[in-house]
Amino acid sequence: MTKFSSINNEAWLAALVESSNDAIISKTLDGIVTSWNASAERTFGYTADEMIGQSILKIIPLERYDEEELILGCIRRGERLDHFETRRRRKDGTLIDIALTVSPIKDEAGNILGVSKIARDITEERRGRETQRLLMREVNHRSKNLLAVVEAMVRRSVTRTPPAEFARRVSARIAALSRTQDLIVRGDWLGVDLNELVLAHAAIVPPPIQARYSIAGPRLRISPNAAQALGLALHELFEGSALRLRDVAGGEVVVTWVGDQADQSLQFSWSEALHSDKDELDDFARDVLSKVSPLSLNGVATLAITDAGWQWSVSTTSDVAFGPQIVDPLGSQGR
User: What is the pLDDT of residues 92-120, one digit of tens each?
Assistant: First the structure.
């Protein structure tokens, strides 16, 4: 190789190191930094002037000093470390997750002269993996929960229900679960806007009688578990009331809620004035309204079947009922 080509190769290699998106650092076998590329400056916040001649321990948290001894020990034995995940400290004091590839630097005779280290910031990647793990655990938990709900739904719906009506009720209830689940997923498993939940289940009401419903309440975000239970209750209420309203000339249903996200208080009310003789509840509907909903909200519920129709309310002051707060700059109310 000519001297000219050697110089060109060295310049090419230096440019490659300097333009790399990964932090590339070289150091002595004693851990003293001898080179520090531009990406290392961006990753750790120190300039080359601040790091060259300094100990690499400058960017290593105190509790991880022993890692440096292990790394240098591997290098002295001529070994290479691939994708070693650890944490390092930036100049501003923040900790970042990084993946290291560490190799020995050798001369032509094979003698180890120093250490080459490539560091890649994996903070966002690791955060993404952790989020994915949390979501998978949540999906697993929620899938088991949904299966338990379906099992209870089938078991309690079959009681004193003719076969054809049983099939219709179970199908409608599974569809209601699906509507709520769509909102939960759309909310990234963090919570559901109560107004959206109510309107989603109100959609099963036939258009000719929709005007006989009054729905109003502030925007509140409730937890996924609370949304699932309230969604089931709303389905029973909207489906039952729609059947009763269809058979009477007048009548109305008033659906209201009041609450405060900050105080974690909620009172939800359903009141019918329609004077229908169709007032039967099967075991599943009664369980949902009287037991499941208040239990999921860690609250209390009242249910009364009167001459005017169904009267139901549930209230809570528990944080288990709420998801993260949402901002409603217009102060919008329900439909």
Answer: 999 999 999 999 999 888 899 999 999 99
- In order of their start, the domains of the chain are 3-121 (3.30.450.20), 126-321 (3.30.565.10)
Instruction: Give pTM, 2 decimals.
Output: 0.59
Which tokens hold the place of 143?
């899938």
